């Protein structure tokens, strides 16, 4: 076998992530690598922190990107805030609530589950019932935007309930950061994690996190050391903190951080609320086209994510064949269902740079072509006009 330089195909990424990466961000990756303790790099790190505070809408000083994907951001939150024997109320309405449960149990803590049907938002009444029934609970953990189903939960209400019952909150914002309204300080979120590859349209491999003063105080009061050396915030912040210089902790992914800096700068240039509005508008266009075609969503409209659309697969249509044809014939990627939704839904992403009018039209035309060729029972010739009307009136 002869191995040569890898040249990836050019795809349009409209699955659950990663999303399309803007040429400005790709260009940033190619800039000269410098040392992770270089004074110039330290200046850029301060700017990344400031830009992340803007994206999260927070003044939290403990805000930075973990040098690993969103799953490591999740572990950072749980490993630092939990100790063995703690009780945590965990909300599960999809795959990623289940991963929260895994983290709780691996920390030696006790997971008290609040379960909702996949495709539905977390039910605040169920959460309050659990908080009343378990006064020993010290943390409420939930997914703001459930990537596996496209359901958006009411983070503001859930955080208010948690604080009413003296609980900290851990929030998964992997799919919501930059795409849905998210206000860390105003909503009282104590610990939050996200990923760079979704609505921020950066390359995968970094996980923005932020911790409130309440959360930091909990970490300071730990009785035992954090079980993970790499994710121990008391050590990491010697590098990411900007008081009195930076101490070596690990070799940071220098060029990936260049890319994150550029993607966050682009978000700031667009304006956060403008980005939220763009995702919402393009979701309405995609929705109009899909429904005109005869397809439906599994999530009720009031709690439906704009950037992750879980669409019911027509009967007698092979999920994998459709996705394979879209990939090979149109260079278009959409996602499969996960867990109990495998084979039942497609997950169509509208995230970051992938959230554009041209991508909406391209996705609708490609999907209609493949489904029509496969003999699916759909309405043809109506999806694009419906999307066009929803976008431009």
From TrEMBL:
Any GO molecular function: L-serine-glyoxylate transaminase activity
Residues bearing the modification N6-(pyridoxal phosphate)lysine: 198
Keywords associated with the record: Aminotransferase, Pyridoxal phosphate, Pyruvate, Transferase
Protein name per Swiss-Prot or TrEMBL: Alanine-glyoxylate transaminase / serine-glyoxylate transaminase / serine-pyruvate transaminase
Residue ranges constituting the Aminotransferase class V domain according to the UniProt record: 33-337
Enzyme Commission number(s): 2.6.1.44, 2.6.1.45, 2.6.1.51
Listed Pfam families: Aminotran_5 (PF00266)
Cofactor list: pyridoxal 5'-phosphate
Residues the entry annotates as binding substrate: 347
């Amino acid at each position: 076998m002869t191995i040569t330089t890898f040249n990836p195909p050019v795809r349009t990424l409209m699955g659950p992530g990663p999303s399309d990466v803007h040429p400005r961000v790709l260009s940033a990756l190619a800039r000269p690598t410098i040392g992770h303790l270089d004074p110039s790099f330290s200046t850029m790190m301060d700017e990344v922190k400031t830009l992340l505070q803007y994206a999260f809408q927070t003044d939290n000083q403990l805000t930075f990107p973990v040098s690993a994907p969103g799953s490591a951001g999740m572990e950072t939150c749980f490993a630092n805030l939990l100790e063995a024997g703690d009780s945590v109320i965990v909300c599960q309405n999809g795959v990623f609530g289940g991963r929260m449960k895994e983290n709780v149990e691996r920390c030696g803590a006790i997971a008290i589950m609040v379960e909702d049907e996949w495709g539905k938002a977390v039910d605040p009444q169920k959460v309050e019932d659990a908080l009343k029934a378990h006064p020993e609970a010290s943390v409420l953990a939930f997914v703001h935007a459930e990537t596996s189903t496209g359901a958006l939960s009411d983070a503001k209400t859930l955080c208010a309930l948690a604080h009413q019952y003296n609980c900290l909150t851990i929030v998964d914002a992997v799919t919501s950061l930059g795409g849905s309204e998210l206000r860390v300080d105003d909503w009282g979120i104590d610990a939050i994690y996200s990923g760079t590859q979704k609505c921020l349209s950066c390359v995968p491999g970094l996980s923005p996190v932020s911790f409130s003063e309440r959360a930091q105080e909990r970490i300071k009061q730990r009785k035992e050391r954090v079980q993970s050396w790499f994710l121990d915030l008391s050590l990491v912040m010697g590098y990411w903190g900007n008081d009195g210089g930076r101490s070596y902790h690990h070799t940071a992914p220098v060029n990936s951080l260049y890319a994150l800096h550029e993607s966050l700068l682009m978000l700031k240039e667009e304006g956060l609320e403008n980005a939220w509005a763009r995702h919402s508008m393009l979701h309405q266009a995609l929705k109009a086209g899909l429904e005109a075609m005869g397809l439906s969503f599994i999530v009720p409209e009031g709690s439906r994510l704009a950037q992750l659309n879980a669409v019911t697969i027509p009967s007698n249509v092979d999920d994998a064949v459709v996705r394979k044809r879209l990939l090979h014939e149109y260079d278009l990627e959409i996602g499969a269902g996960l867990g109990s939704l495998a084979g039942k839904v497609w997950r169509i992403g509208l995230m970051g740079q992938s959230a554009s009018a041209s991508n909406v039209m391209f996705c609708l035309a490609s999907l209609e072509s493949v489904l029509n060729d496969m003999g699916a029972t759909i309405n043809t010739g109506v999806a694009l006009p419906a999307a066009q009307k929803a976008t431009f009136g």
